[in-house]
Fold this protein.
Amino acid sequence: MPKVPLYNMGGAQIGEIELKDTVFGIEPNEAVLHEFIKMQLANKRVGTASTKTRAEVRGGGRKPWRQKGTGRARVGSSRNPVWTGGGVAFGPRTRDYSYRLPRKVRRLAMRSALSRKVLDQNIIVVDQLDFEVPKTKTMMQTLESLNTNKKTLVVTAEADVNVVKSARNIPGVKALRADFINVYDLLNYDTLLITQDAVARVEEVFA
């Protein structure tokens, strides 16, 4: 089992914590991580881009001129895609880009992302994050004490309003509860700052 230091909010090491091999100690599967990120980004797409075809634009009910005898090219409607104000040929249409990978693949991607943090030594486990009131300064002091100078993902076991409000105004810092942890955020943020209770929650779900 991989072992990582356990810190308090002041940045002092107070022990070690063992992480489960099945969650934090596997060989990261880069191909699965790539597929999962593609899925997450596709699911975020709104897909509302749309254009009108020649059947949907206004006008064009009458043939502009007779078929023969004018010397001009034959045309059946002034709303065809060649004309100004006509419809769009093969333009984007409203669609749903979302899809889902198999459950086993999703779980493997999450375990791979967590194991990658351990391998790269970009995970910091704290005994607790206890803020009496929301205060950005307190969160910044905690991050400085733990030497997290990079983009940091803060994960708690339960929804903690004080932690979320303390972190939301700090550029490059995001706070969420363990149930909402996802592969995109794990790879997007350089450092994972997670509480001891949140580690237990993640292991319970993904072991």
Summary: The chain has two domains: 3-45+100-206, 47-96. The beta strands are 3-7, 13-18, 123-126, 152-156, 173-177, 191-195.
